[in-house]
Amino acid sequence: MFSGPGWKIGRVMGIPIYVSWTWFFIFVLITETLATQFSTQHPGWTPTQHWAVGVITSLLFFGSVLFHELGHSVAALRYKMRVISITLFIFGGMARIAKEAERPMQEFNIAMAGPVASFLLAAIFYGLALPFSANSMFGSTCLYLAEINAVLGAFNLVPGMPLDGGRILRAIAWAVTKDPNRAMRVASRSGQFLAYLLILAGIVIAMQRGFWLQGLLWVFVGWFLLSAAQQSYAQVELRRMLDGLHAADVMSEELPTIDRTHSLEEFLHEVLRTGRRCHLVLGNNELVGLITLHNVRHIPREEWANTSIQAAMVPRDRIEWAQADEPAIGILERMQSNDINQMPVLREGQVVGMVSRDAMLRVIQTRMQLERFAQA
Length: 376
Known about the structure:
With 376 residues, the chain is α/β, with parallel strands linked by helices. The chain has 13 helices and eleven strands.
């Protein structure tokens, strides 16, 4: 799995678009491969034309991947599900959606939207290519993009997580079993089986003379799918371990506080003394904000002594709150989507505790240990 969103290159429909550093590697590889392919297929073109078409086709290919992810995003937005971002990386793209589908039909429609978008592009590029000779630069580019979009749509329909086909399989299994977690297990195991097949096929291909690079690429794709499928399965187990728990069950009732006039250096000394990385910030004995180590990281070390907590804190009106009766799994998903580690817990408008990712992970570990002990 890739880490970090990468470089932001713009917004589409209000959705931030990022490019991972790994994308540049595959962009160069695909461009070089296409330039070589076009030089073989079209010897009458100049080297400049070969490379120009290679670059343009690569860019349009990744534009097609972006269009595929936008298909998922439009479907998610239709169900009032916030799309956090879309990231292009070495093996394609990923749309981050803030929450899981609530019903099998939502899961099915969101998953199908991506392949449908790719097949639509394939038809459009094929239609654009028809009036032109297959030997022309425009016709050749459109024909290639029609083929690759058709392959992209078809490959994503393979029934295994994290491919769209895996999500479609999950939606069907969910509708049949009425159990979303059980359905995710089915799709995740299918994805792992598919990944092992790709890795095995890659090894066999790599052993053939002259095909080691293609085989290695298949192995990498299989490894990526295996990691993603295992992560999906781990997510199921995580949800199962938190099932039935609410914020009040996993929160700490200790509420460390600090005055907004204190410096960041004083805050860090307090963190070292207590081990509490998140403090409520008070002003005139009233809650005015929240300060965490994450907020301090953006301030240069030499400015800590002269920077007040108020200058770095999250103001009260921007704090992400959890309700005492809110399901723990929903809180964890909000933390992941907003990239935060702690949330104050409210009951009837009063702060009654603090919930953190660490606390929930400890609960998960304890429950898993108890489960293994009971099965022994």
